[in-house]
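Suppose you are handed only two things: the residues of a chain and a line of SMILES describing adenosine-5'-triphosphate. What would the bound structure be? This form records exactly that question and the answer produced for it, so the two can be stored side by side and reused later without any lookup.

QUESTION INPUTS
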Amino acid sequence: MGLFSFFKKEIAIDLGTANTVILHNDVVVIDQPSIVAIERDSGKILAVGERAMMMHGKTHENIKTIRPLRDGVIANFQAAEHMLREMINMIDFKTRFLFPPALKMVICIPSGITEVEERAVKDSAEQAGAKEVRLIHEPMAAAIGIGIDVREPNGNMIIDIGGGTSEIAVIALGGIVNNKSIRIAGDDFNADIEEYMRNKHNMMIGERTAERIKIEVGSAITELETPPDECIVHGRHMSSGIPKEIKVNYREIAECLDKSISKIETAVLNALDMTPPELSADIFRTGIYLAGGGSLLRGLDKRLHKKTGLQVHIAEDPLHAVARGTSIALKNFNNFSFLIR
Ligand SMILES: Nc1ncnc2c1ncn2[C@@H]1O[C@H](COP(=O)(O)OP(=O)(O)OP(=O)(O)O)[C@@H](O)[C@H]1O
Ligand SMILES: [Mg+2]
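ANSWER OUTPUT
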């Protein structure tokens, strides 16, 4: 390791609506929910990531929790900058520094992002301490993370279902041939569950409880081969106002998520319809790759297979595929420089 690389540290960042993942030397060093807790009066940051998430939905007048990203882009610039700075400070670089290292960051961005939104990502990274900031498009990073050789003249379809957005992209020859981004993803599934619990069970639940229900019994189809056990839910009964316990099964959740999942299916069909025929032929052979936390929803792969007739593969580590791909691009900067802006 030269003296220069000793003082210079390179990190790959997936600044997601739901989670922020940071890799250094191909190792995940940060994997935290994208959330900040702030003291209202002073504006002081009380916590970020896991600790702030524990406060979410349980705050009192003087504390608020903010999710700095919405629909894949920065919605609250100041909170995003604070969150990034704090998370970078949490990284253990395994070396002691007399002064902060020069940080080079490669950050992935949704492919449908506007110039202003892109600038916000760069600015917040610079404010958080970056000396050099480069950007890469998320579908491309996901493909690299999945292990696809993106430079080959083969078409591949990648669907990244995150917290805020579902991105459907066809890539070939190192470029994005077509891309469809819809603002329906994991957050919307949670909102569907909250609404369902209100309407069907007369029960108010918070976002964190909805997330737990989704993980424990969430499903995209009503017939699962290995159904999960029912999930016990606690919330506030709407008419009496008293805390209550009920059981929820996967079939109910599959029904309540049906509308949102149908919208994702329609977007996938549109993207396939827009794909040039030679690339369609490739996708027929290779199938569809799923990444992002949303792809962990039970039966989603089966449902998409049924809808399209294509093979559907889930990335090995869907929650980290995009960040991993970003890290590979950073490490092999010369080979992937054409993808990095
Ligand atoms: N087992 C699971 N079943 C269903 N959904 C899950 C599961 N695990 C995580 N998720 C969902 O995945 C989403 C987070 O995925 P991911 O970290 O890929 O999103 P993100 O990159 O932060 O968001 P975006 O890409 O939209 O900015 C959350 O909505 C979370 O609830
Ligand atoms: Mg993402």
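WHAT STANDS OUT: The two ends are 26 Å apart (CA to CA). The domain at 186-256 is CATH 3.90.640.10 (Actin; Chain A, domain 4).
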